[in-house]
Amino acid sequence: MSHKRSGILLLVSGPSGSGKSTLCRRLTEEGEAVYSTSCTTRQPREGEQDGVDYFFQTRESFKKLVEEDKFIEYAEVHGNNYGTLISEVVEHLEKGTDVVLDIDVQGASLVRECQSEIIQQALVDVFVMPPSEEELYKRLSGRGTDAQEIIDLRMKNSVEEMQYWNKYTSLIYSGTHEEDYAKFKSLLIAERLKVSRLIQA
Amino acid sequence: MSHKRSGILLLVSGPSGSGKSTLCRRLTEEGEAVYSTSCTTRQPREGEQDGVDYFFQTRESFKKLVEEDKFIEYAEVHGNNYGTLISEVVEHLEKGTDVVLDIDVQGASLVRECQSEIIQQALVDVFVMPPSEEELYKRLSGRGTDAQEIIDLRMKNSVEEMQYWNKYTSLIYSGTHEEDYAKFKSLLIAERLKVSRLIQA
Hints:
The structure is a homodimer of 201-residue chains. By secondary structure, chain A is an alpha/beta fold. The first copy, chain A, has a single domain, classed as P-loop containing nucleotide triphosphate hydrolases (Rossmann fold, 3-Layer(aba) Sandwich), CATH 3.40.50. Chain A has 8 helices and 8 strands, in the order E-H-E-E-H-E-E-H-E-H-H-E-H-H-E-H. Chains A, B: One of its GO terms (cellular component) is cytosol.
């Protein structure tokens, strides 16, 4: 019996203000998981390298990848396309590396429909929920410099996204960052103990 | 939506020398989970209280409880009977209290056959595995005062029990106590995040 195991795909959603992106970033900074390099149609910024920061695509090459079902999920943000390649994620998973995917509720539902068996077996999903609308409002207006209508729009979007918590297997009610991170990391550690992920050698 | 949830029944097995009992004890001492009070036919020792330390039973009353399917699991140890009542465990679970059950592989298979739906929904099982037979031997002979044949018998029993690891959902390869406990507690914390355990109020 070997200690080797296949990687986990940790899918994390939660409204703006839930703190999910900070949780994901810390997990990667501590070396517990990696982000998969995404494809995008936006222009490279200074210093960005193709294949490192992103796989830069033309509209046409991106569209072709969509048509060939190469993406776990893809979306348009501010007029640019972004997508996560199945092949990139699978490469990490097969090495036993855990991958974290910071994604909205629409993207998450695309991931759940992905036909790749490796992806589905690796998948663990969690929703990060702000503790209350009052606290969420505080967090979304906390930057201090934004116009009221911008804050109101963020708030509306976040409250809408909050309704999807019950599509997820696990739920973190956001408290302090340290509390949230302890729970978040426990999810990953517990998944690593699963006998079903062990690879017999 | 309420934050209330039903309790978890954490079933822990592993050979003598795996350190599982120390893990369970620490979890209860830290207030993360409780032991369920067991029934026994052995005589009360000085200071032991009926209904606190054990529910003391006669052979006849114990046998009746077995026949009436009142136990999650029961076993004979050194000529005395011990059993865990379904009703006791369910009472904790319904209050949202997590229960830890330190149990051998035979007991664990009885728990898996238990007909109570509440028990089955609450069940999370983990096997604690000594890192190697060499390390196990060191641990089992470590007490220093035991005869060789006693150590050999313990060793034989533990190696036999080690074969059952793949009946469990999760597996902890025992390292240091701190490493093991971090994993063990993560299992419980991760289970508490499950949406399926939330009680809508």
